[in-house]
Amino acid sequence: MDITGYALVTGGGSGIGKACCLAFAKAGARGLLVADINVDAAKKTADEAKAAAATCTTLDFRAEAVHIDIADESSVQTAVEKMVELFGRVDYCVHSAGVSGGSHGSIAGNNFSDFKRTLDINVNGTYLITNFVSVAMKAQEPKQTDASSVERGFTRGTIVILGSVSSMIANPGMVQYTAAKHAIMGISKTAAIDNVTFGIRVNCICPSWIDTPMVQRSFELVPGLEQTLLDGAPMGRLGRPEEVADAALFLCSPKSSFITGCGLIIDGGMTLGTKT
Fold first, then answer.
1. Residues classed as catalytic
2. pTM value?
3. Could you give the domains of the chain?
4. Please, which residues bridge with residue 239 across strands?
């Protein structure tokens, strides 16, 4: 993958964010800042990333943890400034922090406070991290995208944002989550076109049901949901966090140098329709 720079991962304390942190460590990244609202979980991920890097002979690898509340402007700014202070630049940013959306129910009877909270965290948080990271990346020196291919141009960094298949389709009873994830896709596409001349690529990953703590909590809240999903899923299983992390690293690497503004669906065929 030629991952040799410095990575910032939000939501790195668990789930997909944690899987991305470990993937960066194993792929050869030189440094990692794990950002999470649960700083203890972030520190644990940083320690696991160090251990993972050590097994892959990345001897000069550094990993640190920082608290972040993605809905708070000063918290996001502080985390990005910490990244630049520690490593001098941001080569890769994976934004995985977010919430599932609270209660589920028809729009006719949905909870407006849940709607507002979901957008405040997911949408405002995506805007803030994309904004501050874009500023940091624009200020840093460009690098040749691929050391063996000058034709691939230059890069100042890549941003990967976690959307959802709900960025593409709607599901009943999930108005706040669907609205938030559609907005996240819009932010990603706009950031991609705004940043393209600066050598900054921005893409959105759109997973379906991935086996994470957040999804397991949804299964606890809605009895029978897991089996219903598995019965209709073409591949017959949930996705793995590591499978999403693989896609994130691809979009950060020179292998995807001509890809920006895309929404990459990772759903085991779910959006194709249910299996017969």
1. 177, 181
2. 0.94
3. 6-267 (3.40.50.720)
4. 210
